[in-house]
Task: structure prediction
Amino acid sequence: MHCELKNSLARGVPDKFHYKPSMNLKITTQQLLLIILATVLLFVAAFSFYLLQDPTAPLPFSAPPSSTIVILTDINTSIPAPSSTPIPTRQTSYTPFATLLTLTPQTGTQSGSLTETVAPGGPNSTKIPNDTSHPSPSGTLLSTLTSTSPSITASPTITGTLALGEHGVTGRILQNGTPVANVLVEFEDDTPARQSSTDSSGHYWFTTLAPGTSFSVTFNQTDNPNLTPSDQISSLAWFEGSLPTGVEVIDFPDFEISTYLNGMIYELQTPISGAAYPASAITSSYRIPFSWTLYSLGGSYHVELIDYDTNQLVWSSNQLASTNYMWDGTLNDGTHITEGTYYWRVAVTRSLGNYVVKIFSQEWYLIFNQ
Result:
């Protein structure tokens, strides 16, 4: 019987009666490996094709962008316009004998800038009234400042009776090189400030008891609404120094108050008056570009930003040799600019004979939003 079974097996039994587990397992594994390999090759090919495309293009499987997500690559979004409510007139005040800044040209690479939006009415439609203060940053003016100073040859036509110990103080006020009458100026030495108007030849006259002390002669546009055109007059100007000794009548150099000289106008350019910025977006990467035109008589410049409500200087630049400055929003006290209304202006500092003069541009206001 065993032999018959053996012979029968030898003669062959149909394959369906044979159990071959090892052979079936081997075929399944090969198929699985081929499927995995094909999948990997397909993925690599798709990824390689994607890398050949625009790297900035979105992935085909990325979710559609949400309307509430903003990626800040540059500040060019629309900013809500400021209120059209009229701005009240600021209180007038000033601090005489301001100390001048060291001439330090701006250095370093500036990156990025903010785009302004304009208050209703378009550029320059609303301006803050001319300032009557002149807060000035601290520092020392370099003796290397050079400029073309007016001649010190004006002879006074106003004279007054001098009491014992008194000295006369006189000079001329010019507008674009022409003496102007009825200009109110202020003189201050070691006693409270006093005012006087120029005569028909543009001369003013004061008396002093303190030769050798510090002084200032100040012009304020708000005190002189009769001068036109108003946008070609310095909003504020003064010169200062020490009163000479040894003379009975002190004759100061001619004092030019016009911002339009030699066919050039000294004025602000950007940001325009009424421009608005998001305060939180102003950073070292996105700065506000301040710019202005040259003052034709030469000198160095600095930018000032003043709080409209308090009339306090909150930021000023260093003295600049150029007519532009990129500001990152940092105030003088180290804090960051906050929401509110401010105004900005530029002062040029130059020599006037033995004295130092400051000529301020017109003033334009800025809105800082949240």
